[in-house]
Amino acid sequence: MTTLTTHTIESAPAASKPLLEGSVKAFGMLPNLHGVLASSPQALEGYQILHKLFGETSFDAEELTVVWQGINVEHGCHYCVPAHTGIAHSMKVAPELTEALRNQESMPTAKLQALLDMTLIIVRNRGNVTQEELNKFYEAGYGEQQVLEIILGLAQKVISNYTNHIGNTPVDDAFAQFAWTKK
Predict the structure, then answer these.
(1) Domain 59-178 falls under CATH 1.20.1290.10
(2) 73 and 162 Cβ atoms separated by less than 8 Å
(3) Which of 29, 54, 75, 101 has the fewest Cβ atoms nearer than 10 Å?
(4) Cα diameter, the chain
(5) What's the confidence (pLDDT) of residue 183?
(6) Could you read off the pLDDT tens digit of each residue along the chain, which spans 183 residues?
(7) Taking a C-beta distance cutoff of 8 angstroms, is the pair 67, 97 a contact?
(8) pTM of the prediction?
(9) How far is Cα 98 from Cα 65, in angstroms, rounded to an integer?
């Protein structure tokens, strides 16, 4: 099993310290993922910027959760699935939606299912999408903007999911109740 250092504010490289302080202000704690990313101030800052930008997309809380968790589950991320379960609860996303994502079950609406399907097509096919698949996504009420926003969310999730795989990032105590393993 591989591991990477999980930094505290005190042990982190100087350029990461203000970023970690910002994490504590934003989350009320220092997420272990941020502590691991702190070994590279640029990776930490890149992740934080992508997280902020993805949160500002056209997606509502349910849609953000579908994209994040769809990718997290597909990648089998032991850290991000529990973390985003907690985040979804804080965003007032229905627990039924979160559980369906965690258990790879159908979405409660056709539109959310179309979003999950497109997200997984992009992930599994590394961005190779057919016109027919795009048309089906557009027929569900989405457009080109949302295709690009899924890619933005995927960029964020690749950083976190891959970091957690390599670093074996410990799940934060705040999210331990949502522990998860891929079926």
Answers:
(1) yes
(2) no
(3) 29
(4) 52
(5) 83
(6) 889 999 999 999 999 999 999 999 999 999 999 999 999 999 999 999 999 999 999 999 999 999 999 999 999 999 999 999 999 999 999 999 999 999 999 999 999 999 999 999 999 999 999 999 999 999 999 999 999 999 999 999 999 999 999 999 999 999 999 999 988
(7) no
(8) 0.96
(9) 8
Q: CA–CA separation, 161 vs 108, rounded Å?
A: 26
Cα 71 → chain centroid: 7
Please report how the helices 144-167 and 131-139 are oriented relative to each other, as an axis angle in degrees rounded to 10.
110
Task: Kindly write down the DSSP assignment for every residue of the chain, as one continuous string.
Answer: --------TTTS-GGGHHHHHHHHHHHSS--HHHHHHTTSHHHHHHHHHHHHHHHTSS--HHHHHHHHHHHHHHHT-TTHHHHHHHHHHHTT--HHHHHHHHTT---SSHHHHHHHHHHHHHHHTTT---HHHHHHHHHTT--HHHHHHHHHHHHHHHHHHHHHHHHTPPPPGGGGGG-----
Q: CA 169, CA 88: separation in Å to the nearest integer?
A: 20
Domain residue ranges of the chain, discontinuous segments joined by +? 59-178
